[in-house]
């Protein structure tokens, strides 16, 4: 048995107040394989990995690594033993360099007796060697804060590889990567597999799972449903195992018919000359306008400017026929605009605040009495109601949002903006890191919102989502609009043609 599996987790049980997070879960991982760990948000995947990594201590069960029982009391113990992990949420130090982040806590020292001085030259040399070996074009001396999200994710992958681990856990490693970068990651994974390294791969992107996985384990409601050879399953079978029911279609029917123009953007240009320039488009009432483009197309930057988060030097914004000035998010909210940002952890959640506070924080003004006092009972009722509608999994509304899974955090953010009752909702990668069951629920909510007369701008890097949910698609490339596609003419090839139109 010890030769067959590099890692065994035997009947792991973990309970939190009011929640049985893991119920006798077992996982067996072979060396030199990619083992996909699948399940809806809240199924227990992250909790199981935290038990492996020494972040949580199981109430019962056993971890066997290289044939020997182990108990990791900390992340450092796990790393030292040969298990590394790429977190879904980036955990770097923004004001430190790539090299410093890579070797933090284990820096090589100068051979000076009695002194503990970091050998900065060796730190740089080792980082250059590491990046070169992974074929990554990143400046080791650049501060992490200066890198794009996708570059930061690449650095996290490089850091995990640098430990020389025999087991590498990858939690949503491609959530911020372009298609080309995903291909690069898969090359790295295949190289690791050839070196007999085991990869535990967590992702909600079905096409990736069937492209890279050897085995697939499925969890549901804190229990292990089973482990399967990847060749035995297809998308429908896997979805059925994950959510406990069959699914007949990936996207709900969007029956809303777009009406009059509710938002006009005319010749909008960023203060940054390298960002979006001279952008014009219309959004109609009851319309889902998809926004496509490759990483670096300036999609998020454009929408953040419309929401008052970025400065502009030219152009105008017209809401319901009236030209408006939006200098801050407060202005945007007052004009009926909401924004779900791309970076959930960095600019979406308030990690130390409760689910209740995170849900209600943008809409408190509408719950004030004539004496300016907040009607807390109404706030609580509506916040509970919206999270119930979204099927947010949380022990209570007073739970800190940082203790929720990434997908459930995203549901809370969506609920936050639904409580403001916006006329226009900008959704930047709304289903990133969300499981297939929850995705359908969010798609259904989007369809219901536009049917009720709301309008949605949806930025998405998932081509099927972009095509499946949009009435029209606006495509950007290098900060310029390169095309508009009606639903009937929107194909992957048509979107990519516009997305790569550099002229």
How is this structure best described in words?
The chain is globular. It is built from 17 helices and 20 strands. With 503 residues, the chain is an alpha/beta fold. 33% of the residues lie in helices and 24% in strands. The longest helix is centred in the middle third of the chain and has 16 residues, at 179-194. The strands form 4 sheets. A 6-stranded mixed sheet has the order 6-7-8-3-9-10, sandwiched between helices. Strands 16-17-18-13-19-20 form a 6-stranded mixed sheet, with helices on both faces. Strand 11 (261-270) and strand 12 form a beta hairpin. The protein has helices at 45-52, 75-81, 98-103, 120-133, 149-162, 179-194, 206-212, 235-243, 299-306, 329-334, 344-348, 355-360, 376-389, 406-419, 436-451, 463-469, 492-499, and strands at 7-16, 19-29, 34-38, 60-65, 68-70, 83-86, 167-171, 198-202, 215-220, 223-229, 261-270, 279-284, 288-292, 312-319, 322-324, 337-340, 424-428, 455-459, 472-477, 480-486. Its main location: membrane. Residues 7-246, 249-503 form the ABC transporter domain. Its EC number is 7.5.2.11. It is a peripheral membrane protein.
């Amino acid at each position: 048995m010890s030769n067959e599996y590099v890692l065994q987790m035997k009947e792991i049980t973990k309970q939190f107040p009011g929640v049985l997070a893991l119920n006798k879960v077992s996982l067996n991982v072979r060396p030199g394989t990619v083992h996909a760990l699948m399940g809806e948000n809240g199924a227990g995947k992250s909790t199981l990995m935290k038990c492996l990594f020494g972040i949580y201590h199981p109430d019962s069960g056993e971890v066997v690594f290289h044939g020997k029982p182990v108990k990791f009391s900390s992340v450092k113990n796990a790393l030292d033993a040969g298990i590394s992990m790429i977190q879904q949420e980036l955990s770097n130090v923004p004001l430190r360099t790539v090299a410093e982040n890579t070797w933090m806590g284990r820096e090589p020292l100068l051979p000076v007796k009695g002194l503990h001085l970091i050998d900065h030259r060796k730190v740089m040399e080792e980082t250059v060697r590491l990046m070169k070996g992974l074929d990554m074009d990143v400046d080791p001396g650049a501060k992490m804060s200066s890198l794009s999200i996708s570059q930061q994710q690449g650095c996290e992958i490089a850091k995990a590889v640098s430990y020389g681990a025999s087991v590498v856990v990858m939690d949503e490693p491609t959530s911020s990567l372009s298609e080309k970068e995903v291909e690069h990651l898969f090359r790295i994974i295949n190289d690791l597999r050839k070196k007999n390294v085991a990869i535990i791969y967590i992702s909600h992107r079905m096409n990736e799972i069937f492209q890279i996985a050897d085995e697939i384990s499925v969890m549901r409601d804190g229990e292990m449903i089973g482990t399967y050879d990847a060749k035995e399953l297809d998308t429908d079978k896997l979805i059925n195992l994950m959510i406990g029911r069959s699914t007949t279609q990936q996207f709900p029917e969007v029956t809303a018919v777009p009406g009059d123009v509710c938002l006009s953007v005319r010749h909008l240009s960023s203060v940054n000359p390298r960002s979006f320039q001279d952008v014009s488009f219309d959004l109609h009432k009851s319309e889902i306008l998809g926004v496509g483009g490759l990483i670096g197309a300036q999609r998020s930057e454009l929408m953040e400017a419309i929401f008052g988060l970025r400065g502009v030097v030219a152009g105008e914004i017209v809401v319901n026929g009236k030209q408006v000035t939006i200098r801050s998010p407060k202005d945007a909210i007052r004009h009926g605009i909401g924004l779900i940002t791309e970076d959930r952890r960095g600019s979406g959640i308030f990690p130390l605040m409760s689910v209740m506070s995170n849900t209600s924080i943008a809409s408190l003004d509408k719950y004030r009495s004539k004496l300016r006092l907040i009607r807390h009972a109404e706030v609580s009722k509506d916040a509970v109601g919206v999270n119930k509608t979204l099927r947010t999994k949380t022990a209570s509304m007073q739970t800190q949002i940082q203790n929720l899974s990434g997908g459930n955090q995203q549901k809370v953010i969506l609920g936050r903006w639904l409580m403001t009752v916006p006329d226009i909702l900008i959704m930047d990668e709304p289903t990133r890191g969300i499981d297939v069951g929850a995705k359908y629920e969010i798609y259904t909510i989007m369809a219901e919102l536009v049917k009720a007369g709301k309008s949605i701008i949806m930025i998405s890097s998932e081509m099927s989502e972009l095509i499946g949910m949009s009435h029209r698609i606006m495509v950007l490339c290098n900060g310029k609009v390169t095309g508009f596609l009606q639903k009937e003419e929107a194909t992957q090839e048509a979107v990519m043609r516009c997305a790569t139109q550099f002229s």
